[in-house]
Design brief:
The complex is a heterodimer.
Chain A lengths: L1 E10 L2 E11 L4 E5 L6 H8 L7 E6 L2 E2 L5 H5 L2 E4 L10 H10 L13 H7 L16 H14 L4 E5 L7 H13 L4 E5 L3 H4 L5 E4 L5
Parallel strand pairs in A: 3-8, 3-9, 6-7, 7-8
Antiparallel strand pairs in A: 1-2, 1-4, 4-5
Chain B lengths: L7 H9 L2 H9 L5 H28 L2 H22 L4 H27 L8 H32 L1 H9 L4 H26 L7 H8 L4 H34 L13
The chains are: A alpha/beta, B mainly alpha.
């Protein structure tokens, strides 16, 4: 369902990586591996059309990604970015904004599992009224994960989502995403806990430098 | 009652006031002495030239020449806004110019035609004087609005992209930035309207009172022009951002690399 075909990316006229070939099937859980600065996040951003490949093609659902269909592709992917720079408004305001987007108009906040998810991730309803910039890194990470789940999509791009979590929460998050057979999940993480999971396939980006 | 002329000797006396900033900048080593002298020199030369030029312009009072001069003023204003906002001139000049002509032109014609009820809409005195006030004032706030919009998107690029990933359309993604930049551009005008008359007597009013007009008529002009400036600022900031946004993002909704200078 996701294919990177001979993809090369340049940055300031230097190749970041060359001729990447990666095929992700529905339900796969793939961990993108490689040292810092190698361009793991670039792989995610290409799928969302934020960065364009210098050479090669990216396919989503058997369709070549272009400026027309990328807007629809984005509606099918839940993306949690590294550093979770997601805003400086109250959590509930961000949630309302997200639910106000035309693309999400089929979702109903009232009947969503928001409150249940908050408790699952050891947060409380009070978090909703707090400003995102007042939350700790770990709290923000959990909010971003909850938002990704609330979108009801089944492709997930998770960029370092467990970095600021304690081991208990870490396992919760890992089991949640690995455990759902319908979800296609791409993961970037330095956490060994992901690697230990048997269902994870590893894609080593260092081989393409 | 007419305004007495300032003799050459009095002009020298006026310039003598410059010794204060000059001495301060020398004693405190501000390092801006040459900049001060250069700016004062430019101001004097430019204004004298404009005075000579305006003398002719008012004497001819030819609608076509007046309109052309207004267009030249808009050209300079556009250039200055794009440059001061540190944006790419090539990418921004045309759309910004278009937005400026439309916004200021519309307000100007409304003001001259309906508020002042001129028989000749393009009368030199009004077209150039009122046009200059609209442009000059909205220019500063356009710089604030435009640079606020693009700087914030650049600074919060990840945040903006995150919203696109959530399913936001280009417009949905840009609206919060659009809102913020309009607020930033309009706030100073809102504040200055609230203190007007108490804290300072604005230029237009001072000029009219000095030239012998009754304060009652002068304030009516002042109120009307303030409202007109406010409207043209809103219109030009809004239009400029909307029009330039069309060319400064690629089809994927990502801000183009060459947007900044």
């Amino acid at each position: 369902m996701i294919v990177y075909n001979d993809v090369s990316v340049t940055f300031n006229n230097h190749y970041l990586f060359r001729n990447i070939n990666l095929k992700v099937n529905k339900g796969d859980k793939v961990l993108v591996y490689g040292k810092s600065g190698i361009g793991k996040s670039v792989l995610f951003k290409m799928l969302l059309g934020f960065i364009l490949p210098k050479e090669g093609e990216v396919y989503f659902d058997n369709k070549l990604l272009n400026s027309k269909n990328v807007w629809n592709v984005r509606k099918k992917i839940a993306y949690v970015s590294q550093g979770v720079d997601i805003g400086s408004v109250a959590v509930i305001d961000l949630i309302n904004t997200i639910f106000s987007y035309k693309a999400n108009s089929h979702l109903l906040l009232a009947s969503s599992p928001l409150i249940q998810l908050l408790y699952d991730f050891e947060l409380t309803e009070e978090t909703l009224t707090k400003n995102l910039s007042d939350l700790s890194g770990g709290e923000r990470q959990r909010i971003a994960i909850i938002l990704a789940i609330l979108l009801g999509r089944d492709v997930f791009l998770l960029d370092e989502v467990t970095a600021a979590l304690d081991s208990n929460l870490k396992n919760k998050v890992i089991n949640l995403f690995i455990g759902n057979p319908n979800w296609t999940v791409l993961i970037i993480s330095h956490d060994k806990d992901w690697l230990e999971n048997k269902q994870i396939k590893v894609f080593n980006l260092e081989e393409y430098q | 009652m007419s305004t007495p002329d300032i003799t050459s000797f009095s002009m020298i006396l006026a310039f003598l006031l410059l010794t204060i900033p000059i001495i301060v900048s020398i004693v405190l080593k501000l390092g801006i002495l040459m900049t001060i002298l250069n700016s004062v020199f430019r101001m004097s030369v430019q204004l004298f030239l404009v005075a000579i030029f305006l003398n002719y312009l008012f004497a001819w009072n030819n609608s076509l020449i007046n309109i052309m001069w207004f267009i030249i003023m808009v050209t300079f204003a556009t250039y200055s806004v794009v440059r001061e906002s540190k944006l790419n001139l090539q990418l921004f000049f045309k759309p910004a110019f278009f937005a400026f002509v439309l916004a200021n032109g519309a307000i100007l014609l409304y003001f001259n035609g309906l508020v002042v009820s001129l028989t000749n809409l393009f009368d030199a005195k009004y077209l150039i004087a009122i046009g200059g006030m609209l442009l000059g004032n909205s220019l500063n706030w356009n710089i604030v609005g435009l640079s606020n919009f693009y700087q914030n998107i650049k600074r919060d690029e990840n945040r903006y992209l995150y919203n696109l990933s959530l399913g936001a359309t280009q417009l949905e993604g840009l609206i919060p930035y659009f809102r913020n930049s309009l607020i930033a551009a309009l706030k100073p005008s809102i504040a200055s309207m609230a203190t007007m008359g108490i804290v300072f007597l604005p230029g237009l009013m001072t000029g009219q009172i000095l030239s012998g007009l009754s304060p009652i008529v002068a304030i009516k002009y002042q109120i009307a022009i303030m409202v007109a400036i406010f409207a043209s600022t809103t219109l030009s900031v809004g239009l400029t951002i909307l029009v330039t946004a069309k060319t400064s993002f690629n089809d994927y909704g990502v801000i183009k690399k060459g947007v900044f200078r």
